[in-house]
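In line with agreed milestones, the collection of sequences with tokenised folds has grown. One record among many is set out beneath this paragraph:
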Amino acid sequence: MAITDQFAPTLPMIAGVPTTQLAKQFGTPTYIYDASSILQRIEQLRRFDVIRYAQKANSNLAVLDLIRRSGVLVDAVSVGEIYRAKRAGYSLTGNPAPVVYTADIFDQAALDLVVDEKIHVNLGSPDMISQYGERVKSGEITLRINPGFGHGHSQKTNTGGEHSKHGIWHDQLEECTKLAAKYGLAVTGLHMHIGSGTDFEHLSQVCTAMLQMARRVGQSIHVISAGGGLPTAYRDSDESVDIDRYFDLWDQTRRQLQQDLGHPISLEIEPGRFLVADAGYLVTEIRAVKTMGENLFYLVDAGFNNLARPIMYGAYHPMAIAHRQPRDLKLQAVVVGGPLCESGDIFTQQEGGLVDTRNLPVASVGDYLVIQCAGAYGFVMSSNYNSKPFATEVLIENGQPRVIRPRQKPEELYASEILD
């Protein structure tokens, strides 16, 4: 892994376009996505047989279309995500499956849809096997296995171990393969994802667990999925993942399994955050600068209704200032907060809600603050809390910015509500 060096205290340009120009053209708060960054991330993963995007990270149709045109397949965790994939141009069936439904339960609408459209499923519980088998009677399935351990930058992003609800517990594998056989279902794939920010020590454990699980299933296995969780650098001190080393570990696992089973094994990876996180910028306007005791606050027009990761996980996002006019770049410690009627509406906080400061250039009302690495789990986790409209989304492709979701209008906030 290599240490990154990419975050400066000022950000005059985004994807070659002046930040102030973007703010004036599209207003604030606005999400800006750099298409070239997404494409570069995809290219880093080309050694894998299948790249399958976990669209829960960012499911805007234009982003899905960009990814589809790059030959990347997609994962869906809900009926809505299946419909998004279809609208973005994905076929619902094929080999390899263009769309895979991955979940720990079937709600009734999801079960109906995957059965009717013959969508491949990645099943995360014995009950799902029974519910699916009773409807289809035969076919191929993937099982998501919880190996008994996990890893993540936050406990809330740890998707393995006994405190996680995700996947089939490893000791239940034989029970589940027998249950599948009862319904004529062949377990052709195994999926294992233990959380975000996986390091190589944990990755080696996952690879070993995958090999053991696949051997226990046997000859029906044709696909193994490395899941997601590839780390993204949010600080200059963070290390960027060595993709070649990451692939080589999984490829060794695949090759050993091919030797054991005597037939080819397809190796998938399921990135979400890795593809889109550092492609995204939340551009906000500073609307107040004030002192509270020893703390200096920059209050901006975006809140946790726009970006929830800091309040949910204490997640750190790099920040920068885009000044309207050239000025002294002296740094000062500031707390960055939003407009919501909540004390927790602070972007510079640690996990547990402890308010923190960030060293940022001196700025005034009307200057812009840019929250970086906001392309994953940003807009998709937005809400209308405090009756705030959803932000604009803009994609910059080949140097040209275009709106891919307009700012929500005030009347749209209550358009689906019934008064009498």
